[in-house]
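Anyone? Bumping this.
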Amino acid sequence: MTDAAIGEMRGGGMLRRAAKGRTLPVLAVLLAIVAIWYAGAVGLNAQWVRDQAARSETVLSTGEFVVRTLSLDRPVLPAPHQVAAGLWDGIAGQKITSKRSLVWHGWVTLSATLAGFAIGTAAGILLAVGIVHNRAMDQSVMPWAVASQTVPILAIAPMVIVVLASAGITGLLPKAVIAAWLSFFPVLVGMVKGLRTPDAMQLDLMKSWSASPSQIFWRLRLPSSMPYLFASLKVGVAAALVGTIVGELPAGASSGLGARLLSGSYYGQTVQIWSALFAAAALAAGLVIAIGAVEKIALRRMGLAR
Amino acid sequence: MNEVIRAQEIGLTFQTADGPVHALKDVDLTIGQGDFVSFIGPSGCGKTTLLRAIAALETPTEGRLSVNGMEPDAARKARAYGYVFQAPGLYPWRTISGNISLPLEIMGFPRADRRQRTARVLELVDLAGFGAKYPWQLSGGMQQRASIARALAFDADILLMDEPFGALDEIVRDRLNEALLDLWAKTGKTIAFVTHSIPEAVYLSTRIVVMSPRPGRITRIIDSSLPRDRPLDIRDTPDFIALAHEVREALRDGHGDD
């Protein structure tokens, strides 16, 4: 058997493995998206290229036309390779301390997100504990919590920034407050449900041992609520990131992925906008994956993993 | 014989949206120390409610109920009883030992004492060597034995059992019945046992309390003529069969109006 034949067999094996797993479907979808994106870029940027050609009275072949639509400086829709280049330049092409570095902007956003997520998670858990243990809170807190989420965050964010700035608080904290505003809610809802999962029999058992409410909480309610906590943390951390970015939009913030989005739109730097968008998406995915990993370890150790 | 549980004319009425439900009415009963008393009857006859009233998980609306000479609530705080439910209710995040020492932690036993007690009751229910396992690693019958061990760990004199073997298959149930009698002989506990199985009631009990529904009440109390030492094949003896027949008749009498 020749080396080529063996190579072919190996390749075939890999293909088969890919087809069996999730790799192939994921790749197929990805390719389709990229193809649609390229087609969209050509279509949306066509008018500009056509106008320019008419102005300079040049006649473009189809090939030249397509190449030009995909290599504009300020395209309506940048092509995937332009965004990829923008991302690469933002991440690896700049010093990390540079104002043009996506790593630096990402870190500014990430730190505010994590701070806001921590505040929101703590608030959500504390409110849930109150709701489960106190009848007055059970009746009164939830409507307000729901109401807080129905107010458009875009309307609230500038007010929070302005009010806190007038009190001398700027920088990370105002953004963290907005992130917390969005992330406490899923944690609250999940934890109320989670702390109430122990059934009547479990609670009767505790009662038969004359357990105190705090013993019931630490030994039964809190451990039982863990699967719900992790599910809502994943929603909460993504919401916190959205909140932070929204908090970076108003009032001339100069750092963070939100500021990057905004300055990109001021100057028509669509590649910059899209690069910042993808950086934000990657950040969100990373955060959710990190929580998922902690969840897996924690629930397996607690014997709660499915 | 010492009276451990004494119910005088107790009644218990639940207020529901459809009007009052008489779960218990005019229940008179005394249970002596070391008795094994079974409560049997169709669903809705109040047998579980009675057990829960003894455990102070429900409060009778009429009559007097005392446990170890105290109000049920005080008796519970004095750790008078261990309660075993139909489901084991073990925490999946704790080992078997961890589950058994849970009530001991809540009651504030010191660590060394907890370890010693846990080891002792594990031995008692024949689960020695399984302490470090997690509940999901054990069969349903073993899990229920662990939950019995948990109820025994803090040395209550009374064991209240609410259909503890109801969810298990008959083969496992037979074995656990035998083991329960063995445990009862070794520890001398007073056991109140709710069941809807006639053979189980007859096999285990020194007294069988037959109840009927609407309102929940005691229709007959049958004293067992069987010896305390009971191998499984006692169930084929004429005495056993006669007793089972008597219980069945009593159940049928209670049902006369249906």
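Late reply, but here is one note on the structure posted above: Confidence is low (pLDDT under 50) at residues 4-9 of chain A.
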